[in-house]
Each structure stands twice: as C-alpha cells, then as structure tokens.
Amino acid sequence: MFKLILLIIKDIFSKKYVYIFLTAQLFIAIIALNFSIAIFNSVFYLKHLVNESGVIQGTYFYPNIKYSQSDGAEIKEKLSQLGGIGEYGSVNELYGKLNSDNTIIKTLVADKIVLNKSKLPLVKGNWFNTSLEESNYIPIIISYSLRNLFELNTKYVYRIFPDYGGSDSYYDITIKVIGILNKNNYAFDLSGSNLETMIKKNYDGIIMPFNENIMSGYSMKYNRGVFIFPQSNMSIQNIEAKINENLASYGESVLVKNLLKQYEDAKMQIMFLTASLGILVLIISTAGLGGNNMLSILANEKKYALYYMCGATWSKCIMMTIIKDLIILSIPLVLSCGFIEIISRFIPQELFTTNIIYLIMSISICLVIFLITSVGSILSIYKKSPVSIIRKWV
After folding, report:
1. 278-290 in b/e burial notation, b at 16+ Cβ within 10 A?
2. With 80 as the cut, is the pLDDT of residue 318 above it?
C-alpha cells in the first residue's frame, strides 16, 4: 500500500499544473455551494423560528420616537384599558454582573408572556416553564458565549444596574442558570419596528423573566416594542385595528405574520440575487471539475493499460484513482474550511450563517461528482483492450 501511495503522489507531481487547476476548481465549487446554502438558510431559519413560536399569533406595537424616549407608562395604561386584549408584554435591556466577576453583562428582562410565546432553541438545559414562578430565585437563559462564566443548574448572586451609565444605583438578586442558547442564536429584544431589528442575532448576554416580587426595585418599561395577544373571543385583526385607532398618536401596530412577510419579501430579493451568483459559479466550476477530471484520467489511459499488462487488476486501477482523488480533495477541503471561518467573521451574520453541516453537504456533492467522473473514466478505458490503447499512444 505504501508503494502504491508513493506511485500516486509521483503521478500527481508529474502533472502538477493539471491537479492544481482541479484543486482550484474544487475549492471554488465547495465555497460557492456552501455560500448558497448558508444565505438561503439565514432567511428560512428565522422564518421557521417565528412561525414555530407563539408570537405569530399576535400583533406588534412599536412606539413612535416621542414615546420611545419615555418609560412608556402611558402606553401601558392605554393597553390595559383597551377591551379585547388578552395579554401583552415587552422586553427591557439592563446590565448586570456577578459579584465574583467584574464583567458587565447585557441582560434582557422580559414579561412572562413574551418568554412563554418565544421559545428559542437551546444547546443545553430547558426553556422557561409556563408559570415562571419561583419563590427565591429567577431562572435565566445564558448565551453560548457565557457558557464558561456560568454553570448550568447553578445559582448565583447577580447585581443589576437599572440605569447603567446614568446612575450608580443597583440591587442584588439570586439567579439560576436553566439553559444555554445555541451558538448561532436569536433573541427577541424588541428594539426596532421590523422583524430584522426586533430580533437580535447572536445575542451575547442573559435572558430572564420579570419577577415583581424578587425585582421589587424595578418596574418594566414599555418604550420598546410590545407583543399583544387577543382574548379568545377576539380576532387578532380586530385587535390590530382597535390599537391603531386608539393609540395612533403613540405608535403603530402590525400583525407579526405581516412583519414576517415583509422581512421575507425584502430579504429574498437580496438573497436570490446573491445565491444565484453562487449557484452560477457552482455550475461552472462543477461542470469544469467533472470535465477536466475525466480528461486528466483519459490522458493517463496509456499508463493504466501498462499497469494492467504488468498484472494490475482494474479494481486496483480504480483504487489508485480513488486514493488520488482523496489526496486532491484534502487540499481544497482544508483551504475552504479556513476560508469560510475567516469570511464568516467579516460578513454580517444576517447575510451569511454557516456550520459544519453545510460544509459537509458541499464537500459531499463535489466528492460524488469527482468520484463518478473518475470511476466512469476508468470504466470507459476498461472496455478497450490494453493492446489497442498502447497502439493508440505509440
């Protein structure tokens, strides 16, 4: 086997420019396919996340600039007086830190209805239960980036700064880590008027429910977006119309399903153009890859005929070809992994989200094309007699 591998490597170096060209085509094909899959997924994943959550059943109210600068007390009062509304909730962003560590941590404090309706995928632990009632601590979900600072199912004393940067006031609460978000996560922070700005991608911080008993020194503000859900006997369309009629001077209400449709329409135009370019590059590179691979093997048919006449079986010739293909594939595999890791740090996450699964899919497709053309070319040589092949090249 060792002599066989040396023979293959010697063959590769004898036609190094041909194989460098094939390696470059493989690299381009892997990158193009992985990029096309990733950018489509970034749209469909968020769509799936919202569709599967309970927020799709509600409407989203976002205050105008005047009330976004206040504490939103008037908005809360208006909503509480409006008939037909079942539940509503918002999210506040605070800051905090562990008493044992000086790292300042972003903290999303959400009304319980928001957390109950927006279950997010976790890598470990459990999402908040429906009651969210605990007597002596507040359950929290941490981002993947904080997994080394906190331990799952462990309680901590957590210091909250309600007006971080504005005053030095703080108070301590007891928290317990119950779950860890996925690495590529989303969090509903309700800081914008559309789906792209109201959902934070790759959130780096803590999510916790508002508990008025434990957090007695803090009151929820409603100067960010508010999810509103109707009573069982009311349609969400009627609630949306009633809110826009009675709270028009405070902001605007839009059905969550309409926000999702607006996001999808806007993103798909961009994604389709970008992905089309990636697919075009993929088609050109894979077509050239298959054709050039077949040509390189057919150019070696004299060599395979000599191997056969010297006692090598066709199965051994196929084995040599497969080993050679795997050696050639290993180079663009390493290069593409490194390249994707680098560009994923510079391209905005909403445009490019990738993982090992997409990379494996891309490599597998290129591998299949490469192996089919290789084995197919060998089999086409096999149908000829060794003597006729030698005569052809003499």
Report:
1. beebbeebbebbb
2. no
User: Strand pairing partners for 228?
Assistant: 59, 88
CA 227 to chain centre: 24
**Residue in the structure block whose two tokens are 């892997």:** 30
The answer to whether the beta carbons of residues 24 and 87 sit under 8 Å apart is: no
CA atoms within 13 A on the CB side of 24: 8
The domain locations on the chain are 2-48+264-393, 65-249
For residue 293, is pLDDT > 70? Answer: no
Q: What is the C-alpha to C-alpha distance for residues 271 and 260, in angstroms, rounded to an integer?
A: 16
pTM (2 d.p.):
0.67
For residues 134 and 109, is the Cβ–Cβ distance under 8 A?
Answer: no
Given pLDDT bands bounded at 50, 70 and 90, which one contains residue 350?
A: very low
Q: What angle do CA 131, 260, 31 make, to 5 degrees?
A: 110
pLDDT digits (tens, 9 = 90+) for 365-388: 767 776 676 666 666 666 666 556
8: which 2 tokens?
A: 């293959």
φ/ψ of 178, rounded to 5, equals -115, -10
Q: What is the CA radius of gyration of the chain?
A: 30
- Report d(CA 140, CA 175) in Å as an integer: 7
